[in-house]
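Hi support team,

I submitted a single chain yesterday and got back a structure, but I'm not sure I'm reading the token output correctly. Could someone confirm the output below corresponds to the sequence I sent? I've pasted both exactly as they appear in my results page.

Thanks,
R.
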Amino acid sequence: EWHKASQDLRMAQEQREAYAYLVNQLRIGFFQRVLSWLGHYQKKYERYKADVARLSQEVSYIESAKKGLSGAAFVTFEMLNNRNHFLKEKPRWYSLRSYAYFTFGRPPFASVTLACTRAPHPTDVEWKNLHITPTMQKMRGGVLILVLFVAMITLVTPVT
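Hi R., thanks for writing in. Yes, this is the structure output for that exact sequence:
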């Protein structure tokens, strides 16, 4: 959300600066004079000026708004044996779960239990979707499979 808004803001600022340059540039050639006379560059400049103002407000709102937790954390270990200790209950291929449990054991965090998995490569993470729980992912996958199954049966069934 923030990344898209700030990227849009940067693009609008660049466009505004380009049209500000075109508005103030001396026109040579018939077509350039016609565009200038019609106010094309001035209209574009005003449009991007308004976009910059709107996007600046949006970015500042996102930056100052209350943030929520995604429920995900990434930990890097310096030593392999520390990682192995942390993930001591390794998931097995025949297990239905792909994570190990970790508990802190000290108050006030004694009641907290974490489900730990090996992290994917950072380029494989869709950062804006971290708030989607594994249960929701499974439900969406199930609905997709059901829709594809119905579509397959509908297309394959002969009409007689």
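A quick pointer for reading it: The beta strands are 100-103, 113-116. Let us know if anything else looks off.

Best,
Support desk
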